[in-house]
Amino acid sequence: MTRHQKYFNKRKYDIRELPDTILIESFMGCNLRCKMCPVSDPQKNMNGRKYSSMSFETYRSIINQLSDKCRTIRLNQLGEPLLNAEIVDFVAYARSKGHRVGLTTNGTKLDVVLGEKLILAGLNEIVFSFDGCNKETYEYIRVGAKFGEVIANIAEFSRLNKLLKGNCSIRIDCIVSDLTFPELDKIKKFWEQNMIPVNFIPLDNWAGKLQLPAEYGNRRTVVNAETGRYPCHLLWISMAISSEGKVMYCCHDYKQQSKLPSVKEKSLKEIWNSEIKDIRSQHVMGVIEDDPCRSCDAWMTMPEFYQSSKVSLSSIKAKIRALLGKR
Q: Does the global pTM surpass 0.85?
């Protein structure tokens, strides 16, 4: 358990040091048009935010403020990080400062040249968002992607990682919905044969802010609202920064309703120990009156549901069946 997790458990909101995980939105935008993601239509879903790439100048300023210790830098918040033309430099710079660096990608842009550069730059973790294990399911969900091409990209990156003796862990994230639920056994077996672990992730409607297509099924919360609202751990254990350089509460603040300052206006520590400290204290006191937190129901989800492939598939499926209301 990290120090910040302990702070959360004790409901300590006055925290001086920045968290161990920093989420940096290297690119806000995507080349796919997945219906379960707000990025597919930012004008409608994200308060009119425009596709944008974080500048290296802004990024360097952020990394330079994190020099006190090794942290985990995630190079995406929302969006496809490989669309940032300087993504290799992003990885290399954070690694040169002693940080661990990871990113989540749809894999469509990961050709041999880029894959080799990322490995040599020192990328520590890559997560591929890949739903289903057949062409029909995958391409229906990941609109604009080609099943065979992405499979080949993942396989080639895995081969290069071994060939170059890279230190990059590889994982698959699969969203569990009514569309993928019938294929869970096949999905697990398919990736196990390729020696790549799978993370099964419950369907998310972005804390009640995005209407999901009916065919995906319903997102289920598992905490009884009658027990009362409790603080959101994300305000303790991580910090999120948009491609424009604006600090956000978390991934569910993608509309930037928090109206936090930009890193060009205040330092990360100043924002962490003023505006974000204030919202932490409000959560502790149970006075949550402003959006995005007021209308957010992410606190009602079950963090332990995000299981690794080491957990038996039968136990995962049992939980999924319960969430989806299946027998």
A: yes
